[in-house]
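User: Batch of two.

Assistant: Item 1 of 2:
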Amino acid sequence: MTATTAPGPRRRGLGALLPPSASPAAATVVLARTLRGFADGFVSVLLAQYLVGLGLSPFAVGAIVTATLLGSAALTLAFGLSAHRTGLAGLLVAACGLMAATGLGFAAFTTVGPLLVVALVGTLNPSAGDVSVFLPTEQALVAGEVDAEERPRLFALYNVGGTLAGALGALASGLPQGLAHRYGWEVTDAQRLGFGLYTAVALVTLALYRGLPRRIRNPIAPAAGRSPLGTSRTAVLRLAALFSLDSAGSGFVVTSMLVLWLHLRFDLSAGSTATVFFASGLLGGASQFLAPRLARRIGLVRTMVFTHIPANLILALTPFAPNGRVAIAMLLARSLFAQMDSPARQSFVMAVVPPEHRAAASSVTNVPRSLASAVTPLAAGAILARSHFGWPLLLAGLTKLAYDLLLLALHRDTPTDG
């Protein structure tokens, strides 16, 4: 049931940025997402540099990134399909505990085998984006804490908080190397401390989620029928297939693989890489505030497609950049458009299913995305091991363009009043 708030005292801080109908629980989720965004942004850039510093090959780096995405897919499915029995808040608390354990595992192990295991069963997000066990559960919770017409605005704030914090995290990821050079430490030892920061953020987020209201702590009502999706099954599976195509393309260019490509092709330093992804995060985050306005004028689906196409055309052309400066400029230009579809997509999924199916729908549409994006980083690593040309970027752009055209053809007239 949508949470419509009664008129009350003037909000302060984060609450002042929320839509008027958003509940305090929505503010808690946005704050938690922002904190996790910083940690994800920090380790997504740090990860490839750290693994290379340990002596791992590009193929091994790609394998570990793939393992993180495969593990996220399995956890996302398990969490989403059990939400009607366990409750959304309980699942989020459990995810925070697992996040803390993941940070400790990456800090403790230095060889491929143990790192693959931690990557597979943990929560590490190599993209600083929306491939995470937290997001489907958070999205289902947020969707019921605001009126339907204000849902895109709340999702935009939710995404932007994570994106901007992720940009700050990406910028901060160069600090371990700077500290190592200043104090004569081993760079990999300094970078290992970054996973301690990841663990600390998990513990703070856990405390936030333990403070959610009792009504959210209780299990939500079971979906109609034997399946958590009930009558929404066909529509959700169709969307899952479409989103999988998009994510298969995205997997070629998760942040960790872009960092690797920029290093191999243009010998970009850790400090320069951190600055690039900081700027990219700022541009991508700020652009999402335009999505609610566009959605009101042209609809959710057209907002998704018409902002995505320019981003993917730029991505497909980036491998042909003659030098690093041009490549960086093109990646930054892509950032202006690449994330504007996110609040529209999240609102679209929540609008086309009834409230009792939202947790499962969010999970089922995200799991194939995680699986699809889990395969392609391994392929990207194998390709980059043979050629430093940006074939993964070209493949990503063309694949994502195909998704845009199919989405528009199939759903341009789908009603989104839910």
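Item 2 of 2:
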Amino acid sequence: MSTTRRTRVRGTGFRKMGKFRPVLRYRAKKFIKPMPIPEKIKPEALVELPEGVTMKIDKNKVTLTKSENSLSRKFPTSMLTISQEKNNIKLKGNSHNAKNRAIVGTFNAHINNMLKGLEKPFLYKLRIASVHFPMTAAINNNIFELKNFIGGKKIRKAIIPKDVDITVNGSEIEISSRDIELAGLSANRLEQLTRIVKRDRRVFQDGIFIIEKPRGKLE
């Protein structure tokens, strides 16, 4: 198999550079040299701590506290370094690749959600839609129970986490929690509880549906 001219030019070192290294060249005097590789910067992000919020880092666990409310989350120590600089939380990736940039952006969003949760609980609103048969919903020891779904005798149940508050007002359901993931998980469990298969959804519109999600920035 013949080689290209680029691999045979003296001084290029193309074979040693590897398959995925840049192959652009620029001329300097008589020889063709590789183009200089730009400096690779590790991703960073700063999150400002509001007044009254304290931060504690224990190995790979970050805990944010305000008065009696506290939220914690674990982070991957091999990909991310979290530290406190005065009144800011500093997130720094341990590498410059795309995966580390994504991790820094993800945990930046997680910490902002934790700060929002310390200020105000996240609220999800759901509605029970009864087209064919009336359904009854109740809560017993953190277990949501739904009866008479499409005339079935089986009681459908969903476990609600301890840190989540749920209220049922007729056909309206409200789920609130300072942890946005727990609130979203609980709302999704109730919606999936009435999932219908092998039926026309345009006809069988019975079920529980999310009608409002938490939105907005921290003020």
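Residues 22 and 37 are 8 Å apart (CA to CA).
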